[in-house]
Amino acid sequence: MISPRCAACKYLRRRCPSDCIFSLYFPPNDPQRFACVHKIYGASNVAKILQQLPSNLRAQAADTLYFEAQYRIQDPVYGCVGIISQLYQQLHDAESELAKTQAEIAFLNCNPQEEVQPIEANYSANFNYLLPDQYCHPSTQNSWFS
Amino acid sequence: MISPRCAACKYLRRRCPSDCIFSLYFPPNDPQRFACVHKIYGASNVAKILQQLPSNLRAQAADTLYFEAQYRIQDPVYGCVGIISQLYQQLHDAESELAKTQAEIAFLNCNPQEEVQPIEANYSANFNYLLPDQYCHPSTQNSWFS
């Protein structure tokens, strides 16, 4: 019985050798996965990255290469760095809110008769609004591109 | 006067044409920058990504490609996705701490004679400890690789 070629060998129109570096991580039922990493890194660069790793780490490396390639295709300017900028900004917002809340507790401890109004919900932990114009917070850029 | 070749053309041992796609973003005084993106993406893939963009976005794209390439060289398994996992985990921790603090304010408002002890500093917004064994928080993996 001839085993089916992996997605990479199918894409590259070649025979799939028994020791194919791609076959375990790019199965034939998901051709888009290889097409995606091929478009951004090229087959030989993906092979090089996988080959330099011990076999137990290759699946995770293939997953993260695919993840980064998807985001670079979706957003050719920022790629994954757009997500990093977003998360960094959200973390900064959460920290500011936390500091503010801790200051309110300190105030309440010193003034037990006072009442503090609930904090306005101006902080939102929503990971889905990865909008291009929000990627480039200046503080983020200074931190990550230095 | 012959203008100096850009870092890419020097690396590729070729003449630097006047309309070189790399020259503005890979200056000759920073050869490492091109060597880095070349190692991960290859020259032709970097050129393709830059060429598809309007010229005012290319510098930012070159910066983010360099950033991602650096992290992939530093950490061939996780690359930039390691940073994303870290930030995601830190954000989750900050949110938990914020929720806890808000609950304490609500408690103080209902029990004005009570005193709440300052929150222990078990949350630390330190971006420098990007350690490999902290990359793979299960909740992060579920969210980002689905």
From TrEMBL, chains A, B:
Entry annotated with the keyword Coiled coil: yes
Residues of the LOB domain: 4-105
Lineage: superkingdom: Eukaryota
Coiled coil: 84-111
UniProt record similarity statement: Belongs to the LOB domain-containing protein family.
The protein, known as: LOB domain-containing protein
Keyword NAD belongs to the record: no
Lineage of producing organism: Eukaryota, Viridiplantae, Streptophyta, Embryophyta, Tracheophyta
Biological source species: Carpinus fangiana
Keywords: Coiled coil
